[in-house]
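FAQ
Q: What does a multi-component entry look like?
A: The components come first, one per line:
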Amino acid sequence: MATADPRTSKASEPFDIVATYNDLLRSDPDLTMPIAAIEALVLLLTHSPSSTISETLDLLEKSTAHLKKSIPNPIGLSAGTDLFQRYLITTLQRPGQLGPAGDFNAIRAHLLSNSRLFIRRAKESRDKIAAFGRGFVRDGSTVLTNGGSRVVASLLQQAADEKGGPSAVRFNVIYVLSSPKGDIESPTAEPEGMETVRALRAQGVPVATIPESAVAYSLGKADVVIVGAEGVVENGGIVSRMGTYQIGLLAKAMGKPFYVVAESHKFVRVYPLGQYDLPIEQHVIDFKTQEDVDTAKQQQSKPAAASSTAQGLNSEFHPDAVDFTPPHLISALITDSGVLTPSAVSEELIKIWF
Amino acid sequence: MANTADPALNPVSSPPAAPEPASKQSNTKMDQPQSQSQPQPQGQKAPKPAKPAKQQQPPKDKNASAAPADAAGSDKLSPAELKKKAKAEKAARRARERAEREQPGGGAGGAAGGQGTGTPAGKKGSDAGAAAAASAKGQKGIPRRGSAQNVPQSAAAELKKKQEDKNVAVFGHLYGQQRRTTVAGAGKEVHPAVLALGLQMRDYVVCGSSARCVATLLAFKRVIEAYTTPMGTSLSRHLTTHLSHQITYLSTCRPLSISQGNAIRALKLAISSIDPSVPESEAKTTLCEFIDTFISEKITVADQVIAGSAAQKIKDGDVVVTFAGSSIVKQTLLTAFKQGKKFRVSIIDSRPLFEGKNLARTLANAGLEVQYSLMNGVSHAIKDATKVFLGAHAMTSNGRLYSRVGTALVAMSAKERGGVEIPVIVCCETVKFTDRVALDSIVVNEIADADELVVTQPPHQLTDLPDPVAAAQPEPKKGGKAAASNPSPTESNTASNKDGSPLTDWRDTPNLQLLNIMYDVTPAEYVDMVVTEMGSLPPSAVPIVHRMSTNL
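Then the predicted structure of the entire assembly, as tokens:
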């Protein structure tokens, strides 16, 4: 919090929750979206002089809505904001000194201190998951994974780490790297996950990198698929990086177990019925004729001719695009509250919400 | 008694049955005494049947002539044949004794059979019954079939059995008692409001799980209002038993729904938790308030919440398929329409209740684009569907949907056709959740009166053609009448009405069973989402929510 304070005090007059959230995400590479959202909300509460419960809740609701609106993909984020809001409400409704009858300032102080504890715990959950998930990486097995999930990385690293457990597991990794995306800022940026690949190789784990088009080809050599998730939805499916769904389908077709690694604060109260039922707008499929392409080019050539190719790529494929992997493709979810079947997710969610 | 001799001599299975109708017509009355004095010498008996056989119609001449020939043959029997016959007699006696043992009221059965043969239909029935008996007992042996004195009696027994067997065997456990037809015989404790409600439920005037639940609770509210605690007992103790009478009455009108059961359980719990020291009027007010809260919380407001969240799932350009007439689905569709969404509704309906008709009318009146088709057209209706919305009678603890029969078919068609692309969404209040488990739709179900399947309004005939059914019937009464008074359309119409449905006399038609089942079970794999007032769930989460909503 110490690092965040100066930054936020700078913008303290009207507290900008969106900027705070983005800053938090950028400053700490280990931070996940829901936790960043919760942290931003905690900062908001410390900065705003609310004096009643309803005022606090109202403020929270407004800034949450604002935050959700200004972020292109608020699924992961909403897990955090929902959780925090729920936590606040249950704390406030609890009878006793900290309940509605108590002193509000005491309640506020309690809430804030507890929220920080909550954040710390959430960060620790990654280690917990790694401990649960170790058993899924067997000696001599080959793991296929994708994306830049930090939980997956920590799980694999811990499995390979000789100090972490009784003995290191010897395993191979097939890392699916997404084709280079048209990132405007650095078109030659390395694909997501390269960092993990380097770290694993440094630990002595043999890693093969393959493009997304080679998943079906390589899956025969893999024993298990482990992927991360941006959000775990109510029916036990996951919202994850574009390309996870097809890996899931292929794994199902080939009879390979498909495990998802996710912290339980990524559970979201969203119930998508299919790919196009996600509560976000994604323009992944964009039909164009040559005419459309030409007019788009003309418009682009006016501001910056150099980045036109990159722009063209970018509009075709948004780097943050996600897809939805339905629950029947998932063998199990490895979370910090244990290894769950997809159908147990809704049970966990209900427990949190009621 | 030609039959007695016949089969013994030529043990072929089919010919003996053929001459029966003619011979029996004259013989049935003599059957009983004769079968009692069975061990008669064959020679005396044999000639008798020759006479009726001779009266037979020309087409059956072959058989008829065969019978006398046999009879003549029996006059001069070879020792071997005599021995054979004696053996047959013995076997027949044994078989008859066995039949009598099987049917304790054997005599009564025979009498009933005798009466039955008076009417042509009854006779037909007994004939076929005999034939069926012959084919069914075929393995047990020719000797038994040969014991033809036995045939009429065993036919009568069979007839009686057949009459009982109008229940479809697999669902035999569901028949139970007949639904109450009048209020006669209802206990004096039963409140008039409950009496009326019972009949309304029986006639499907009050139909649908939620509607029945609400109506029951409202009726019970009136019961409680009219209730005074008798001397020497407390309200919390006596009111429960008083309500039990009402409940028993209601369940004789139509088996209680899961929602009704849950509501009653909640009400009883509320009654029993009333402190005996609370004055009666106060306790009654509390209970009435409880009922009102229950209705609004569990059904009225719950429906609004469900309609709201289910309507969110409807997108512009959707084609929503629904089955029969669920009130909550109706509310959902209307809510989505009010939100300005542009979608089409395709209603699939089925006999005999046609619950979808009301839904179609309401939605069309509201301005929605509605397509109405019967179950037969389900594959066409599902072709352009994008979503399926279903109502529920209950959700079981293994996540299965228990709903109006046909629901499973619609859900399955959607899944088989579209897989994940056509999501099947169930709208269901948590009051309909049950901790029971349904593996199939046989163990738990409801059987309605099979006559509901029979009654149909034949399509009004515009062309004045003679009714093919009536014309084809060789029966002198109707056929003659129809032919004679053909010009009068009303008469031919009534005639065709009488025979309009070939099933009208299904109870007297042998080998015919009618099944009017009310519900079926949709496997959890066919359901993508259950929308409840506590949020959207996968079907696997039903038991958790049920546990929570009952423990709160």
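Q: Is there any commentary attached?
A: Sometimes. For this entry: Residues 1-74, 104-152, 474-497 of chain B have pLDDT under 50 and may be disordered.
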